[in-house]
Amino acid sequence: MNTILRLCLLFTSFSAVHSFFGLQLSSSSSSSLTNLSLSTPATDNNMVVEEVKVGDTVPSITLQEGLPEFGKKDVNISELIAGKKAIIFGVPGAFTPGCSKSHVPSFIHAKEELKEKGIDIIICIATNDLYVMKAWGEHSGGTDAGIVFLSDGSAELTQALGLVMETPMMPRTKRFTLIAENGIVTQYFSSAEESSNTWAPAVLAKL
To answer: Which of 26, 85, 125, 147 could form a disulfide with 142 if both were Cys (CB 3.0 to 4.6 A apart)?
Structure first.
């Protein structure tokens, strides 16, 4: 009888010890996983790029230009403006009201004055595809006025300039204008306050 009692007590003690250490192991594992989860750094894929400013270099990025008969060619923006006094202006979208009625026409009407002020080339960019940009240039009269319409279809240049405007359809370019001399930004015109701050009259006032 005493032997049976001792065995029962021993079994009870062993079970208690096993349960205790099993619980401790479980808690320790849970705690470790929790700590691991808390200590794992969060990753942010949305890299914030500072908005372009005077003194910056226009990045070496390849855009596309539409050609007749549905042709196309790659155009490196930094190579295109090298050695030139250039105006680059960006718009949210081809054929959109503000861009078609005000922004592009302002540079068409001012082309001769801008040339007299030393501007060698005027470039319009948007994230529309190259065929849309070509059609818009022709329809607006901008191409006939000598404005070069380039597609930033991947928004690579727009992103590099810190001017991405996210929309449900696609990333677009915030409205802007800049003057670059031999690839260096010498004047920057933002639309943050007024869209008209990026139109040709505002640019002429700074030349």
So the answer is: 147
Do the Cβ atoms of 50 and 56 come closer than 8 Å? no
Taking Cα atoms as reference points, which of 146, 139, 158, 142 lies closest to residue 77? Answer: 158
Of 87, 58, 111, give the one whose Cα is nearest residue 177. 87
User: Which residues carry out catalysis?
Assistant: 99
User: Burial of 85 by CB count in 10 Å (0-12 exposed, 13-18 middle, 19+ buried)?
Assistant: middle
SS3 at position 72:
strand
| Torsion (CA) 131, 132, 136, 139 in degrees, nearest 10 | 70
Query: Could you tell me if 174 and 165 are in contact, meaning their C-beta atoms sit under 8 angstroms apart?
Result: yes
The one-letter code for the residue type at 44 is D
Confidence of residue 169 (pLDDT cuts 50, 70, 90): confident
- Write the pLDDT tens digit of every residue in 98-129: 898 999 999 999 999 999 999 999 999 999 99
Structure-token pair, residue 38: 């808390």
Q: Are 78 and 59 in contact (CB under 8 A)?
A: yes
| 60-101 pLDDT, tens digit each | 999 999 998 889 999 999 999 999 999 999 999 999 988 989
CA dist., res. 192 & res. 98, Å (int): 15
How is the chain split into domains, by residue range?
62-204
Q: Please, what is the end-to-end C-alpha distance for the chain in angstroms? A: 110
Q: pTM of the predicted model, to two decimals? A: 0.76
